Amino acid sequence: MGRVFIFADEAGCFTFEKKANVSKYFILNTVSMNSCAVGDALARLRRDLAWAQKPLGDYFHASTDKQEVRDAVFSEICKHDFLIQSTVMEKTKAQPQVRATKPRFYKTGWYFHFKHGAPHKVQKTDELMVVTASLGTRKERTAFEEAVQDVLRQTVPGLPYKANFCPSAVDPCLSVVDYCAWAIQRKWESGNRDVRSYDLIKDRITYEYDLWRHGSGQAIEAIGSTTIWLVHIPLQWDCCTRQSGGKPDIAKA
């Protein structure tokens, strides 16, 4: 029995109006790996950069790190084995029912992400550990954590798994998914013009899917404590990279 580690983070905000300084997309990202050696390497790299008196924050965070630090981090993480999965949600295409609350919108994306994109190549004999960067207020964090737990119960039934939620600074492997998420976000938000960082990691991307490329998300109704969801996707299951398969099912979420 092997243990597969999945580290999860998101890029973008929960603001749905079109206005300045608001992201067009909300992008859910995971990196999957069989070893967390890259996290140990990043801890060593941070000590080396501190010794060299490079400009450092409290932890590696792509959107705020200086370019020389980003270059060093990308150089280091690309020495290690991991795979990347990304689900892209164009926020203005989300139906009002889907974006009624942040946890509902978040959970919808994670359901389709884990059902079709992650975990990648997990065997029935594997154990799965999912570490998610926490976000939002205390109340929202609780709702987000419950959403992820429910998604895992639905998408990896029978597979031994544990879920952990923590600030990004706690686990250096969360910096790996943060950097990958930032690179993918730069590509999408720029309309494919800013791909400098994306090109460094694109060969590791196994799944990069625009969830509502030709349609929009819609909730059906709540039955008891369970909400039944249908996401409108055209018959063509059109992925942006190398994932294939049938269109999504109606699912509990």
Walkthrough of the structure:
By secondary structure, the protein is of the alpha/beta class. The chain has one domain: Nucleotidyltransferase, domain 5 (2-Layer Sandwich). The protein has six helices and nine strands, in the order ββααβαβαβααββββ. It has helices spanning 37-51, 67-77, 102-116, 138-155, 173-189, 198-201, and strands spanning 3-11, 25-33, 83-90, 127-133, 161-166, 205-210, 217-223, 226-231, 251-252. Strands 5-4-1-2-3-6 form a six-stranded mixed sheet, sandwiched between helices. Strands 7-8-9 form a three-stranded antiparallel sheet, with no helix packed on it. β7 (217-223) and β8 form a beta hairpin. The longest helix is centred in the middle third of the chain and has 18 residues, at 138-155. The two termini are 29 Å apart.
Please outline the helices and strands:
Layout: E1 3-11, E2 25-33, H1 37-51, H2 67-77, E3 83-90, H3 102-116, E4 127-133, H4 138-155, E5 161-166, H5 173-189, H6 198-201, E6 205-210, E7 217-223, E8 226-231, E9 251-252
Parallel strand pairs: 1-4, 3-6, 4-5
Antiparallel strand pairs: 1-2, 2-3, 7-8, 8-9
**pLDDT below 50 for ≥5 consecutive residues: which ranges?**
217-253
Helicity range: 25-40%
Structural class: alpha/beta
Shape: globular
Could you spell the SSE succession in H and E letters? EEHHEHEHEHHEEEE
